[in-house]
Amino acid sequence: MKKVVYSSLALCLLAISSANAWEFQKGKFADRTFSKMDKNSDGFIQKDEYLNASKVRFEKLDKNNDSKVTLDEAKSTFIGKRKPMVMEAWVKRYDKNSDNSVSSSEFQEHTSSTFSLIDTNNDSKLTKEELKSHKENKKSSFKS
Hints:
Blueprint: H1 2-37, E1 45-46, H2 47-61, E2 68-70, H3 71-77, H4 84-94, E3 101-103, H5 104-118, E4 125-126, H6 128-143
Antiparallel strand pairs: 1-4, 2-3
């Protein structure tokens, strides 16, 4: 009986410490992401900084440099990181003209509207708190 109790206690402690480590890692990731985007180091992400970071992400996705990202390009970039159906949903959400690819302008348009969505106080700059809140809201919307 004692073995069962101790084993259960050990598993609970392991689960708690793993959850705490995950929360710590998420915070570090958010801080690193914010620091990379905040090019002028003023403690905010201006819209042009956000759009420039977005442009860099698009260029990484656009493997053949034709100014559009196909589903195959998206899948090859995120292989092992995201499920193929997530990437299919990504292309579908961004692809406004239904040509089964995401153009540079479609990507920038979506990114610009996302910036406005994240900027909850409408001051044309993002704080770490706004960015973290958006990430949490986005994550919780996938759970429900």
